[in-house]
Amino acid sequence: MEIFLNLQSKGQWISRGLQQSDNQNSTQDSWGYHRNWHEKLPEALWAYRITYRTPTQATPYSLVYGTEAVLPIEVELPSLRVAMVSEIPLTKQMQLKLQELDGMDERRLAAQQNLELYQARMIRAYEKLSRARAFRKGELVLVLR
């Protein structure tokens, strides 16, 4: 029996006969069947919203709601953070929440400033790598669109 190997775009050697079945299995393993992607989407978006972002130095969730998200596992198996909040009386919790909301504008302003600094750093890094080119009248220029 002969097995012909070829180089896949990822740089991995695979047999020609198994390529299609491997691609199908990897899709089913990661998302299940293609028809239930809408069931997995909220989990993926939730993970995206609570992930720390370098440009803003905050999570999108904290910028919108003013507090860090509580992981579902922390609700089932109470962490120290959840246990401390659950022991505080409701009136005190409301006062703390109002104090956090008062500080949201400052946090959003700080996130905006961090974003502007990050963008300036990216611009400087790009300009360092690129070089200005001056063209004179009559020179031939290749334009790619």
From TrEMBL:
GO terms for molecular function: nucleic acid binding. It comes from the Eukaryota. InterPro entries: RNaseH_sf. This is Uncharacterized protein. It comes from Rhynchospora breviuscula. The lineage of its organism: Eukaryota, Viridiplantae, Streptophyta, Embryophyta, Tracheophyta.
